[in-house]
Specification:
By secondary structure, the chain is α/β, with parallel strands linked by helices. The chain is 33% helix and 19% strand. The radius of gyration is 18 Å and the shape is elongated. Bound molecules: 2'-O-acetyl adenosine-5-diphosphoribose and zinc ion (ZN). The site of zinc ion has 7 residues, from loops.
Length: 243
């Protein structure tokens, strides 16, 4: 993998950067991606767990599954890819992270402007009274999955058939449209409407840069395709920028 000198020049002239990230950025932290050969969905059908009806029919199974994912996330740490993105803030006027991930790792790595399109697994709420249960300390098991009011507690993540948080999505579209450079990192870029974000950037004249271990549906559209691990490539770019 070689980072083109032209990309470094484009970065040196840029002030607004967007990172659009997916499960692949967290792969090197030991969190499984959804698709691909080691993807979660080789073993589990998403529609069986990640929708509201499944939750109502089988709350315990869905809660246990999310608690299991939370436990995994708590035992891992951000990797050099997340840290490199946080580091970009020191060099550019405006850096926005638009992520499809719910794992909170960008926050833990120190990024400050994060737009979470699919929610955050550290937030949970009661579907009856809206009471919130926030933070890593919360554990479904200790409250038996229920709020004091008796309502079921669910994770604050976007499930199949649910809307994305409108304001966050609009803000992400705006930042993408205004960006000079948009990095598309570790995402198969097939899940809409999230996957509109890089297209929005492209149509507004942003330079599109893909970082992925393999080519994806948008590879043919990007200006620079960097094949490799995000935890290796992003630190290399920082280094080339002289940081
Ligand atoms: P996917 O699992 O679809 O894609 C992960 C991508 O990361 C693939 O393109 C891999 O090639 C790439 N990848 C894996 N390891 C990598 C590494 N070390 N460095 C760089 N790239 C790597 O995950 P997403 O695109 O995030 O939505 O999936 C999008 C959405 O699908 C998720 O947010 C989730 C799911 O439906 C919801 O839960 C609402
Ligand atoms: Zn309640």
């Amino acid at each position: 993998m070689e980072v083109a000198e032209s990309l470094i020049q484009q970065l040196k002239n840029a002030s607004r950067i967007v990172f659009f990230t997916g499960a692949g950025i967290s792969a090197e932290s030991g969190i499984s991606t959804f698709r691909g050969k080691d993807g979660l969905w080789q073993k589990l059908k998403p529609e069986e767990l990640a929708n509201f009806d499944a939750f109502l029919n089988n709350p315990k199974i869905v809660q246990e599954w999310y608690q299991h994912r939370r436990d995994i996330i708590h035992s891992t740490n951000p990797n050099p890819g997340h840290f490199a993105i946080a580091e970009f803030e020191k060099i550019f006027d405006e850096v926005t992270v638009v992520t499809q991930n719910v794992d909170n790792l960008h926050k833990r790595a120190g990024s400050s402007n994060i737009l979470e399109l699919h929610g955050n697994i550290e937030r949970n709420y009661c579907i009856e009274c809206g009471n919130e249960f926030i933070g890593a300390e919360f554990d479904y098991k200790t409250v038996n999955g229920k709020c004091k009011c008796g309502g079921l507690i669910r994770p604050d993540v976007v499930w199949f058939g649910e809307m994305l948080p409108y304001e966050i999505f609009s803000e992400a579209e705006k930042k993408a449209a205004e960006s000079d450079i948009c990095f598309v990192v570790g995402t198969s870029a097939v899940v809409y409407p999230a996957a509109n974000i890089p297209l929005r950037a492209l149509h507004n004249g942003s330079v599109l840069v893909e970082v992925n271990i393999e080519s994806t549906d948008i590879s043919s559209l990007v200006h620079h395709s960097l094949l490799g691990r995000s935890g290796e490539i992003l630190p290399i770019i920082l280094e080339m920028l002289g940081s």
